[in-house]
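Input chain follows. Return structure tokens only.
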Amino acid sequence: MIYLGIDCGTQSTKTIAFDADAKKIIASAAQTYDVLPGLPPGHLEQNPETWVQAVDTTIQAVLQTLGNRRSEVRGIGISGQQHGFVPLDGEGQVIRPAKLWCDTSTAEECSLMRDHFGGAKAVIEKVGMDMLPGFTAPKILWLKRHEPKNFAKLATVLLPHDYLNFYLTGALRMEFGDASGTALMNVRDRDWDQDVLAFIDPSLAKKLPPLSSSQKPAGTLKPELAKRWNLPSGVVISAGGGDNMMGAIGTSNVMPGRVTASLGTSGTIYAYSKKPVIDLEGDVAGFCDSTDAWLPLVCTMNVTVATEAVRSLFGWSHTQLEDAVRSVPAGAEGLLFLPYLQGERTPNLPKGTGVFHGLTTHTMSPAHLARAAMEGVTMGLAYGLKRLQSLGISPTEIRLTGGGSKSTVWRQLCADIFGCRVVTLAEAEGAALGGAIQALATVQTEKTVNAWAEELVSVEATEAADPQKNSTFDYAATIQKQIALTRALAERGFL
């Protein structure tokens, strides 16, 4: 049987066809797009119709590759960018463009909500995470405060992957994983927090779709879409989930000890947990996952965005960037980079900027800047890993995904900075693969999604990296220096 996995992100949508019997991806297609231009600083939006068109285009391309084997398709699973706010009216039509996870225009709304509930720690106690600009809850309040006419039309709140499920099935629902990233939900008991809903608006509770297990299907493919794509009737649409939740399934991060680190434009580091993980300091988001367990996660907004900026600055190829990083010793001879080029989520600096500290006539060289940039973004993720460890997560292996994981020098850097063995996956499309595996588990219920992931996901043994035992450089101390410098500058209002 064949299962389609779709990963709808901020920059592109990818669709894969996974052959469950052969245990491999047999077709794939992608379509790129951008955010809406001309918006004020901090506002990042997309038209949901862009995602629908990309899904349609990539599914048709994949099915064309499959040819007659399209008749073997049994299920589809959607992975979507988290936290985006898709507002629908009473007719199921989109009211305005979706505000995205990287939109930081809602900082004021976050402050209003924190103040109402008694501060950040009180909010964390209440819902399991701080109220951050990226989350969905402040976006809804923003709509009410800034676009009251649009808010008056609001009948249904959806997340990006929920909207695509709605397009595929006609059904409105949310599952625990992606819903936990709204900051509207108490992650401990997996239910909406009525106090938070009421503060935003007394009518909000009625505008949220039913909330249920990630193991239950979203529905079946609409007959008109099955006809358009020449697929059999009854194709199951699984619950789907946020990109991190689906990435966890697609990297088989479904048991204690495994940690996934994504080296993409932004970065995430997250782990599987059988119980809620609540961080009263607010660094770790206590998400649920899409296997009905939990996914404590740290997100940073600047990873390859920083290394690509350096690469572009000097007109290098990726190989030249790697060579430059390799030519400079660990620690970049005292040059430290605070990589907040487009604000930051961890630490919470929505208006943050980047800083090079330790520049001398010797270290102000292209290679030193490159090394410091790669180290700086990786140490940002390492800080998140240390926070996870402080909350009871004991990593035995870090599974790397994202564009940065293709770099040999970066993989070794991760092993040295994380202090743990790192591996990559045989299949690079973690979130899309997670969607396909979840769809498979929804149809073939003889095994759990965790068991299917363990069976079907394999690591690339030749790309593993272990911490260098002969290294004398103290990355732990440098991470503390990065944190201290960030705090000192932020407290003075310089970040």
